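User: Predict the structure for this protein chain, please.
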Amino acid sequence: MNISRYISSKIDGADSGSFTSSVTKIAIISIALGLAVMIVSFSILEGFRNEIQSKIFSFGAHLQISKYDTNNSLNAEPISGPRLIKTLRRSPQVDVIQPFARKTAIIKTKDEVLGIVLKGIDEKTSRSPMRQNLVAGQFLTFPDSSASNDVLLSRKVADKLRLKVGDEALFYFIQNPPRVRKFQVRGIYQTGLDEFDEVYIIGDIRQIRELNAWPDSLVGGLEVTLRDFQRLDPVSDNLYETLPYDLKLDKITDQYAQLFDWLKLLNKNVVIFLILIIFVATFNMVATIFIMILERTNMIGVLKAIGATDNQIRSMFFFRGLSLTLRGMLIGNLIGLGFCALQYYTHLIPLDPENYYMDRVPIHWDLTIIIVLNVATFLTSLLAVLIPTYLISRIMPVAAIKFD
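Assistant: Here is the predicted structure, written as structure tokens:
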């Protein structure tokens, strides 16, 4: 039998009703709340990051290849799609390649006029990630015989033009000679990101080919999704070396730098917040062990008088602190994971999409982060337990027995 662990368990019951009992409860609560807040904070942070990145990638993927144009015009010169796709497929890091084309237009209804950008997509290679943003109606259909006359409007554009699913509208394309097309609203999407919702309408790429008199082999550009977004920089550098001199490659992090900078700022704020939480929890644990030692000074003196070593007594308080840490962590995990599950399945806490780009607080489950937070809390708490136990070696048996 481990004598230190045995005495520690007896102290646990003997502390009931004493001042130490109140302090230990505070220590358990501080560890529990600290761990719970860390789990919730990281889950929400990763949820925000994944939701916003997913919305951005649904419009621009990780990389975008197009004709080099000093004017940065949306009506860019076309590029040969099949040849370039074949070249990109050689890279093992490339996952999905989506052809696209863009063309500016003016929409006219009975009451409103609005300038937009028609983005044509092609689903021959893979399903468009835009499907995840659909909030009303259905997604585009791509008949084999001819170009589809269906379009997807954003919620903002639909509200401005007073259009709903099934309505028709005239699109005026400024070119020589000017062209007019009648499109039908097939569905309505919403990302919450004004950069997209106020500008883009989604349609069939064949409509843009017909307007520009392009053959089927030409596209406005290619959107490339990588297998691992974390390797964006090195992969983009390697792909750029394989491209012809007249093509440019844009990274999504450069195109929408303000959004990715905002995500980085959120990450820094959360890290500072978590450091403060860990500091408070550690301070409470150190204070708790100090109080335990002071209240048990007489007992420490008796144990030393009958032959107990400093390490044995130190182990006794170590096991006491370990017990408090494990209780706090258990409660903290129940609170943190319970709150995350409640929000994940019930969407209990809503958000204003105008300010937060989404209508609810997002939750992302990441087992690795949860394990790392638990391990960090456990190790930090144990370090906080060990620090005050070294005071035991300075307690003299004669003085300790007289201590009251």
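DSSP finds 14 helices and twelve strands in the chain.
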